[in-house]
Queue: 4 jobs
Job 1
Amino acid sequence: MQDAAAAFDRAEQIYRVLANYEGPGGGSVQRGVLFYGSGKLTDARAQFEKVLEMLKTQENNYQLTRAQLELSLVFRDEGNISRAKELAAEAIRVAQNSDIKNVATNGLIDLGLAFLSSGDFDDANNYFSTSTGTGAPR
């Protein structure tokens, strides 16, 4: 974990020197994924929220939807199902409007999982069906 954190720090330094504004956001998303995968939800949430803050000054719908979807998983795991649903729904809307189909599909699955976690099986099934192309959201 320490080696990965050091590598992310170094990559962010290089991106800044190169004036590459997309790189630090991508690095923060990946750092958040690393924290999430190791069960460090607070650290993961901080990274994803950092990305969302960075994206207020630039347009990058791919990173925006990735960060929102990952953050929705953190909220789901923390038990905040309503916030998880909101974020996933917003990410899906942006991905669909931006024609980022693979991200939209992942978002539909994540939204289905959020509904499933809250015991709403009908809505979960609706989003799972939509993600596989066998249904349309109601």
Job 2
Amino acid sequence: MPFATEHDVRLRFQFTDAAAVPADLIEAAVEAAHERLMQRLLPGCAADPPAAVLLGETLLAGAEVLRSLAAREAAARANVRIGGQQVSAPGRFADLMLMADAATDAAWHVLADCLLPFPAQRVLAPTASVPVLGEAVR
């Protein structure tokens, strides 16, 4: 069960237009944010979530909504040519993606005290040399 609700996301991000941002879009974003959060949340924070967990999940869900709106904007963008020059709406897609990234960064910052540490990742894994052009391996 997610910590955030549709109302929380609408209120935090001021998504007042229900036609532009339908309830099912927000609910799907809340579910996605909750799944993403539960992978990293400390067990104690999941059992009795502090206010930071609610805020963090709300921010993650809002970021998902913004990415969905950006994708819709990109898909609906029509290329109009006037006198050989392409005319497009100035930067709406980029602005939505920038806001989504900012909300995601803010969410992880707010959630920092309730998250499991990142597991160490191997950046480089050495492998045995294999001759490519038939030469002998030294």
Job 3
Amino acid sequence: MEQQEDILGNDWRVDDEVKYYLHQTSVLAKYVAMLGMLFALLTTGKTLYNLIRLIIRYGDFAFNAYFFGAIIGALLAGAVYFVISLFTHRFAVKLQLALKTTDQSSFYVAWQQFKMAYRMKGIVFIIYLLFMLVIFIS
């Protein structure tokens, strides 16, 4: 049986093909992050616009518990999605910088931002599953 070499103990070598894939990853991540931030801003803006329109039209009648909860939920969802997209954008920018300058600290920070984005996505997914479980049980 052949023994595998310990790649974590050795310095990793990044050839041109890996650099190309990392560059493509950073470009696509930047694009997705910008679309995500735009989507979050547009959704939050539309929610605030509709809130103001309903307050003008119906006054105090618009403030029941269901309506208030829906507005708060939509605003929080927009804010959370914006922050996740911001971490993804930071990942893309730092990864592009690291590839251009071969700066190890930028490369490390890029992957920290990537980890934070997916950690937040995981937390949001768990909260969503818990809400679905509560709705399914009740």
Job 4
Amino acid sequence: MLEEAKELIARFPDLYRSFDDPKEEPDVIRSYDANNLMGTYLAVSDLFQELVESGNEPRARELLSYAKEKLYADRSNWPSDLSTAIILGFFENFGHTQELWKNLNKWFSKSEYKEFQDAFDYLLEDDQKDYLRSLYA
């Protein structure tokens, strides 16, 4: 298991299940997601969305804050495996998930939005990109 995944699981132990755990809970990081950074942050993205949908926004914010903290701590190494995993595995999915758009400006400051705009906009139509930009106008 990757050190980054171990640290994430240590911070959020309630969100982890081993591969052999018979519980079929979608809102967990499974051990097989913890073997590579992209898999870990794709699982974090799914987890974030599950937490928001279930009304547990405080826990979702904790998860997002953790990812931002790790990302900014790694800034001197960008692009790195970690920054790629967080930006493409987690942040990019904010743009793909319309249910999350209404809160985007609560979760990301204007400067953060501009910094990660390419990830948020990836695969969106022009009118969808315009809508996201309007949240920060």
